[in-house]
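Thread: quick sanity check before group meeting

JM: Hey all, I'm pulling together slides for Thursday and realized we never actually wrote out the predicted structure for the chain we discussed last week. Dropping the sequence here so it's in one place. If anyone has concerns about the input, flag it before I start.
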Amino acid sequence: MRQVHAGEHVDGGVYVDIADATIWHFTAGEAYGPPTVLLHGLFASASSWGTQIPAFLDAGRHLFVPERSGHGHSPDLPGDFSLQRIVERTIVYLETVVGRPAHLVGWADGAAVALLVARERPDLVHRLVFVGGYLNAAGRAADAFIDQVTRRDPVTVDYLRIYYDTTSPDGPEHFDAVFDKAVRMLTTEPECEIAAFAGVEVPTLVVVADRGLVRLEHALELARTLPRGRLAVLPGTHILPVESPELFNPLVLSFLAADPPSVWEFG
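JM (edit): ok, ran it. Output follows.
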């Protein structure tokens, strides 16, 4: 196990203190206009946005890409993973590190984190992109990867272990503890009613794969429930940002640049 300290630079990013945690994050781009914060999900890290970061920077976005505790370069903390704790830390990160209202782009349960932040602190969010996420178990479709993870398929576990071992300051011996916590969270959270977000006025683009782990009906209900919600279904996709950046990137960038009108006026 290696101790990390705020201000320490590793692999192009830097450690920062937020609330009760020290996390690693990457930031780059010109500091004008609303910044864009990319929020990864379980079993992921900043590297999962690898096909977005160059394109978003080329488009003039000021990016912040934090890694959760126990993920990527960020050390783990005692206790189970909890959606509410992640939301609380994300709010502190936006307040103290980003320092001004931002666009949030959340993927998988990072999408649920982004939406919960927008509900609790709408003053911190300009626009929101909800990518390949669901809000409750009923919204999740059958998925081979989730099945392999929850039954601890050895090939899948070894695949996840390789990246963890090369980046985590906690060392390879801590992987099993993090994996167990991630599986517990995956099987219990999020569990939110869609109707509970009917008051979220932040312009939100719900992006879903036509062959992903989210039921299309669930994504449609969410987009219709949000007062300023939009729905985009990308064809022939499963893991949206990774598989189809040529579709995903311009879609998200155009939405962040301007919220389309709810009603077109003619004449």
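AS: nice. The mean pLDDT is 93. DSSP finds nine helices and nine strands in the chain.
JM: adding both to the slides.
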